[in-house]
Design a protein that fits this description.
This protein has a single domain, classed as P-loop containing nucleotide triphosphate hydrolases (Rossmann fold). Helices cover 34% and strands 22% of the residues. It is of the alpha/beta class. It has a 7-stranded mixed sheet, sandwiched between helices.
């Protein structure tokens, strides 16, 4: 099914998983990753709306789970970033723990978009997030954000290495795609994956 993402609108912000809408109605895809990994920017690029989600250069700015509705019953979930360095260890891991709870409990979750800064890939909490998703058979699509920050040659080499490392690490194929809001890398692939999941 092909969705019209440019009409996506803000639905609600909630502080916890138990506050989310009834999971028996509709389908969801969640955007997760470290603080400042580009989750909000990716949603804005996907929907062709520069201000749909608040983008901040300050890590840890988002502290609520933000829901956006593509069409009735079709939702994108923007989770706060995990691992913000200036937080205590407990707070650094807090949103990762919430995401793991969400993965286990949310029956209408169709897939996980994991944002990873291509310059700092597969950090500890990213690895644990992927493992949690795979353990409950939730597909993962990894977007290597900020790909415009490195040269094209380095981009190709780095992308291949990340794909190889993830295959060895998780013993399965994880979809990986370079992504850049500035140079429009990966937006078409993101739409394709979402349309496949949300049908």
């Amino acid at each position: 099914m092909i969705h019209d993402y440019h009409i996506t609108h803000f639905l609600i912000s909630v502080p916890a998983v138990y506050c989310l809408p009834n999971e028996k109605i509709g389908m969801e895809v969640a955007f997760v990753g470290y603080s400042n990994s580009g989750k909000s920017s990716a949603i804005n690029a996907l929907t062709y709306q520069k201000k749909l989600t608040k983008v901040s250069k300050t890590p840890g700015c988002t502290q609520l789970i933000n829901l956006f509705e593509v069409s009735p019953g079709i939702r994108l979930i923007d989770f706060p970033g995990y691992g913000y360095a200036k937080k205590t260890k407990k707070r650094k891991n807090y949103w990762h723990d919430v995401i793991c709870e969400y993965l286990k409990k949310r029956k209408n979750l169709k897939g996980l978009i994991l944002m990873m800064d291509i310059r700092h890939p597969i950090k500890d909490l990213d690895q644990k997030t992927i493992e949690s998703a795979l353990s409950v058979d939730v597909p993962v699509f990894t977007l290597l954000s900020k790909s415009d920050k490195i040269s094209r040659n380095i981009l190709q080499v780095t992308s291949k290495k990340i794909i190889h490392d993830m295959k060895m690490m998780f013993e399965t194929h994880i979809q990986v795609e370079p992504f850049s809001v500035v140079k429009k890398y990966g937006i078409h692939s993101l739409k394709r994956v979402l349309n496949n999941w949300l049908r």
